[in-house]
Amino acid sequence: MSIKELIGKTTKLTVARKAQFGYFLTDGDEDILLHSNDANRELVEGDEVEVFIYVDSEGRPAASMTIPEVAVGRYAWVKVTSVKPEIGVFLNIGLRKDILLGKDDLPSYKSVWPKEGDLLYVTLRVNRNGLLYAKLASDQVIQSIASKAARKDFNKNVHGYIYRTAKVGSWIYTIEGFKGFIHESQRKQEPRLGEKVEGRIIDVKEDGTINVSLLGRKQETQETDAIRIYDYLMSRNGAMPYSDKSMPEDIQERFGLSKAAFKRALGKLMKEGKVYQEGFWTYVKKD
């Protein structure tokens, strides 16, 4: 197998000679440079070393004694280091040179592209020009590493990373190893690819996959919604032209809440004696 065919893979080579900037390694037919910055110890001629073959900034095959977890045919979770809207995102696989995940492999909407620090489950691929790129794991690959959830896991809190995103929903791989789906109705906003999210299991399917909600449990959501309404009231000197008689679309536009959620939160504030209603208006109770 030629050196070019080993790009993105691990192999064992022999030190042929020391050079000004590192070492030349050989497989008996071809030589390749191991830069001194890619060597983790001093080497001498004849040493056999395990190296990872990558492509340097000049587009040439190069060797590294740092062996990434990810390789051609091997997947791993890697961190996003930077985002370049015109070409894609760069990933740190442990080498001196970050690897590009091209924009063609990312969602069409840049609003859900990963940000620096997000995690993606990827493998490596070599294009027809011999350049090394990252490739996202498919749904089938995630399925192959996933653990099956059981009925006892229903309603448990989980957190994990978004590995696929679409208008209809988002797909998550949880820390527990569960493969899950988040329907668009179970999220306030669409998470980014690679974003870490926390939710709860709202269904366990027969195949062991799960449905997840990113919306808070009712009592937690009610508390948050009540604070939002009360803060809005205070910003208007204790009076607002909204009540449980308001139109659902008006409530949605102002507070981003359904009418049912608005009424629950308003009811909580009234029960606590913080507000009262008169006609179509709501007021803060004065001490």
Task: Please characterize this protein's 3D structure.
It holds the Pfam family S1_2. This protein is 16% helix and 37% strand. The model has no long low-confidence stretch (mean pLDDT 93). It is built from four helices and 18 strands. The strands form four sheets. A five-stranded antiparallel β-sheet has the order 3-2-1-4-5, with no helix packed on it. Strands 8-7-6-9-10 form a five-stranded antiparallel β-sheet, with no helix packed on it. Helix 2 (218-235) packs across helix 4. It has 287 residues and is of the alpha+beta class. Strand 12 (169-174) and strand 13 form a beta hairpin. It folds into four domains: 4-64, OB fold (Dihydrolipoamide Acetyltransferase, E2P) (Beta Barrel), CATH 2.40.50.140; 76-137, OB fold (Dihydrolipoamide Acetyltransferase, E2P); 146-213, Beta Barrel (OB fold (Dihydrolipoamide Acetyltransferase, E2P)), CATH 2.40.50; 218-284, Arc Repressor Mutant, subunit A.
Can I get a quick summary?
The chain is an alpha+beta fold. It folds into 4 domains: 61 residues, Nucleic acid-binding proteins (OB fold (Dihydrolipoamide Acetyltransferase, E2P)); 62 residues, OB fold (Dihydrolipoamide Acetyltransferase, E2P) (Beta Barrel); 68 residues, OB fold (Dihydrolipoamide Acetyltransferase, E2P), CATH 2.40.50.140; 67 residues, Arc Repressor Mutant, subunit A, CATH 1.10.10.10. Helix content is 16%, strand content 37%.
Features:
single chain, 287 residues, alpha+beta, OB fold (Dihydrolipoamide Acetyltransferase, E2P), 4 domains, 4 helices
